[in-house]
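Entry 12.
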Amino acid sequence: MQEQEKEQTRIQTESFTSTVSHEMRTPIQTMLFMMQMLISFFQKPNLEVSNVPNCINYCTIMMSQLEFLLSFVEDLLDLR
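Predicted 3D structure (tokens):
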């Protein structure tokens, strides 16, 4: 009986880890990619948008926070 409980716990843990991995990493990575695209857009020559430096700065801050969050999620998943 104890072996069955261990196996069930292992299966549930793997299922949880897989779900968390997909549900958290995928949107974070997508947002990082979007921030990189925005920064590239704002760095185009002859772009006529006011406050471009502020927009780049905000995107950079958001990327930094997303990278931290992604690292945190990956560290949590490595605990298993």
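Annotation: The mean pLDDT is 83. DSSP finds two helices and no strands in the chain.
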